[in-house]
Amino acid sequence: MTRIAVDQNKDMLGVIDVQPTFMEGGELPVPDGAAVVPVINRLLHHRFRNAFATQDWHPPHHSSFASRHPGREPYEQLAMPYGPQILWPDHAIQNTPGAALHPALDQHRIEIIIRKGWRPEIDSYSAFLENDGRTSTGLKGILRDRSIERLFLAGLAADFCVAWSARHAVEFGFQVFVILDGVRGIGLPTPDGADTIIEAHAELHRLGVRFIRSDDLDGY
């Protein structure tokens, strides 16, 4: 693959939901989730001077939690006013250790932190829009004001918050790269016999998202 030179004025690393709640011992662990931390730290040290992070930040008893719906189990799907919603184990509760950015994550170049999912009545996967597809986090305007053109995404989970962030970034006109060794996915089964990682990858490929590895990048 042709190597990619990082433009420190126009490129930004997006660090998606790198929180203990999504790692081994957390409330909603992504398989091998902690493995993204050293990859992202290397990118922050040697490739990107500019980065933003997202942080799942749910109030207790969030409407997306299966515990809020008697008779329902985690990972079932439920119709919400804004559309279909997967029900999750309680996770990323505001002001708990699991909801903090991972303590081993080097935050010295993370200049923006977007908290999402804090409205009790609606879930939020994307760094840009909540799950109704209308309510903005404000990130698009920040990036436009900074003249950012390309986004490089890493974090958790590849098939949910990373994928939704990539999808909306494309819709808003950014060129998007997903750093494969810097993401891990949940991999829920889908009705067609695949899983959510496979389906997300295929959709993003159709949208023109490029999949790379951290070693494909030249920094500074």
Largest sheet: 6 strands, parallel
Strand percent estimate? 15-25%
Structural class: alpha/beta
Q: How would the global form be characterised? A: globular
Protein name: nicotinamidase
Keywords: Hydrolase, Metal-binding, Pyridine nucleotide biosynthesis
EC number: 3.5.1.19
Domain Isochorismatase-like: 15-185
Describe this structure in words.
The longest helix has 12 residues, at 196-207. The protein has a single domain, classed as Rossmann fold (3-Layer(aba) Sandwich). Helix content is 19%, strand content 23%. A 6-stranded parallel beta sheet has the order 6-3-2-7-8-9. The protein has a two-stranded parallel ribbon with strand order 1-10. It has 220 residues and is α/β, with parallel strands linked by helices.
Give descriptors for this structure.
globular; alpha/beta; two-stranded parallel ribbon; 220 residues; six-stranded parallel beta sheet; Rossmann fold
Task: Please summarize what this structure is.
This protein has a single domain, classed as Isochorismatase-like (Rossmann fold). Helix content is 19%, strand content 23%.
